[in-house]
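On to our target:
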Amino acid sequence: MPECKITLYQASRDELLSSDNALAPIIKENHSFFLRLCESVNEVTLTILKRLDSVLNPDSKATFTQYHRKEKSSLSTLSMFRYPKQETLDVGVGHNKHTDLGTLTFLLCEQWGLQVLSDSPSGWQFVAPKPGRAIINVGDTLRFLSGNRLRSAVHRVTPVHELQLYDRFSIAYFLRAEDNAMFKATKDRTVSAKSWHDEKFDVFRQTHDEQARDSVLTGGMEFNEEIVI
């Protein structure tokens, strides 16, 4: 089944801070609101990162936060998505299995549909949306920076029933490392945060058959519906 996810609005933190002319009209009209939202969630994710530093890197000069300096350019992005309802099974829906390419994802959603792949025999499991709660995903960059101590979340969006009978909406903030931050990715390659972003987005544009032959989409974490790292 082909996926179908519509990006309603999207803006990088850098674009919001600079009031970029390329911003969508709705974002321009409500710029102060979107900027406050973006900066608030950015602080939340950085706070989580600092706490992880205090536990995993207490005596090290190489910390996670040093790759996320506020004054440096990054592709941290605030996005709003819609997954359209289906009239027939011929219409694509959801989002194919993947790991997020950044550091941490802050996700708000009120509807069911998100699944995470467990390394237990239970396999795919729905993540329950809970009022007043956000879902936090570890992304590829944090996995690489932590030397696999933290693992990327392999996840997808799929209908709860055979057909998705209603539009599904979500808001996500993707905290991403500085563009020039360097780390060791899959296949022992040293890449920059921006080059990993661009490489993975190219894979997202491929067909499902092509994606299945490339481990980049799931960050090398998954093979044949099983966690391998």
Q: What stands out?
A: Residues 89 and 96 are 16 Å apart (CA to CA).
